[in-house]
Succinyl-CoA--3-ketoacid-CoA transferase
Amino acid sequence: MRKVHSKVSAALDGLLFDGMTIMAGGFGLCGIPEALIYAIRDSGVKDLTVISNNAGVDGIGLGVLLETRQIRKMVSSYVGENKLFAQQYLSGELELEFNPQGTLAERIRAGGAGVPAFYTKTGVGTIIADGKDVREFDGESYVMERGLFADLSIVHAFKGDTEGNLVYRKTARNFNPIMATAARITVAEVEHLVDAGNIDPDQVHTPGIFVKRIVHVPNPTKHIEQRTTRPRIIAASEVN
């Protein structure tokens, strides 16, 4: 089966439907599958549940799907950089399932491993535990969390081969690898596409068995979420 598609829209052809659940990889604006997000926007699919650590920022990443009101619910951890997200949530337009960041990561990992639920100490005694099963193990209380599994995962990789083996770069390795395992179908956009056999097996982060479709997206825009600078100190030796 040929996994590589020449266009982003073709990589998603036949996969999208109203009311579906989508996992979107990345951390902040690092490693986000931006080209696939734009293709989802252009498809017009709506009433989406999106599982993502954050919701991008206004006008970038998942922020574009918030602008078009295509997202009905977010399952997230950190959403503080998106003003539109806050407006929609506070007005009741957007549903939010809030998670501690480690819990969100473990829920995704568990879903990919076929684990339907697990117990964790994180959130015990807080509103995070409201309505959830709390049990005692070895004298300590733990709250039950459900594993997460999606209809579709969209991920961004630094390098991929034609069989779908993926390599992520630095911070992009946070949520992308676990999300690639936790969906019925995973679609990957890759910056560098190589022939099968050109990636050292020891360097593969996501085996190709988890990836059904690939699209080559060279030279993506590398957004900076918050640019912080300071004046340059000029040494005396540089004067004149």
User: Anything to note?
Assistant: The mean pLDDT is 93. Residues 116-146 form one domain. The two ends are 64 Å apart (CA to CA). DSSP finds six helices and twelve strands in the chain.
